[in-house]
Design a protein that fits this description.
Mean pLDDT: 89
Low-confidence stretches: 238-244
Number of helices: 10
Largest sheet: 3 strands, antiparallel
Number of strands: 3
Radius of gyration: 19 Å
Structural class: mainly alpha
CATH architecture: Up-down Bundle
Strand order of the largest sheet: 1-2-3
Shape: globular
CATH superfamily: Rhomboid-like
Strand content: 5-15%
CATH topology: Rhomboid-like fold
Distance between the termini: 24 Å
Order of helices and strands: EHHHHHHHEEHHH
Oligomer: single chain
CATH class: Mainly Alpha
Length: 244
């Protein structure tokens, strides 16, 4: 199961969110489409975060460049989907400039925790997921009761189910914690601690914003949802596929 949309789109055009999506897609296509099997690994090693190298040589610029690299189509599509769902409402609250700084700072928090968890790693870390996790952390604090549509499938059963944001993001966070403490960091794959670092960083940076709007009083006014009219999504049109 995975989220596909929220029920309260932004009240204004989220230009920074769209710009980040376009930048990620454009950079990915620039090194993925030439069909050079050696190009992508070279890009990852040159521009991705390699914890040991970063600590030894101070290649701190990779903490930023790694946020715009992705290891494959599904990696890119999944991250951009999450950014599209959660980014617009956070940009609406923070404004475009503060949202961009918030996004980049969340990415740095993700790098910091991943490097701290495995400082001797020589595996390149790439992807926007740490920065996007920060957006998700902020979204959870501001809009815990927002309705997120989940596409659920099990063998031949398909359904779109509306679920509260605190449930969706809570399950996601639990999976990251479980993965971070059960999968050895030296195996590569998913950078769970980067996700946790970004999420924690984004949540903490959102606390002053939440308090400035009244804290729990803000939840009482907005009912824990983005302060915009809900989109008029109808019931799921995805049919059940009977067993043949």
């Amino acid at each position: 199961m995975f989220p596909i949309r929220d029920h309260n789109p932004s009240g204004r055009t989220p230009y920074v969110t769209y710009g980040l999506i376009l930048a990620n897609v454009g950079i990915f296509l620039a090194y993925w489409l030439p069909y050079d099997a050696a190009l992508a690994p070279r890009v990852f090693f040159d521009w991705g975060v390699i914890p040991l190298r970063l600590l030894q040589t101070g290649d701190w610029f990779t903490a930023f460049t790694s946020m715009f690299l992705h290891g494959g189509w599904m990696h890119l599509i999944g991250n951009m989907l999450f950014l599209w769902i959660y980014g617009d409402n956070m940009e609406d609250v923070l404004g475009p400039v503060r949202f961009l700084l918030f996004y980049l700072a969340s990415g740095l928090a993700a790098v910091a925790l991943q490097v701290g968890a495995d400082p001797g790693s020589i595996v390149p870390m790439v992807g926007a997921s740490g920065a996007i996790a920060g957006v998700m952390g902020g979204y959870l604090l501001l809009f815990p009761k927002a309705r997120i549509d989940i596409f659920f499938f099990f063998i031949v059963f398909f359904r779109i189910i509306p679920v509260r944001a605190w449930i969706v993001l809570g399950i996601w966070l639990a999976l990251q914690i479980f993965g971070g403490f059960s999968v050895p960091t030296d195996r590569g794959g998913v950078a769970y601690f980067a996700h946790l670092g970004g999420f924690a960083g984004g949540l903490l940076m959102t606390v002053p914003v939440w308090l400035a709007r009244g804290g729990t009083a803000f939840w009482n006014v907005t009912q824990g949802t983005p302060p915009h009219p809900a989109a008029g999504y109808g019931p799921s049109r995805i049919p059940k596929v009977p067993r043949r």
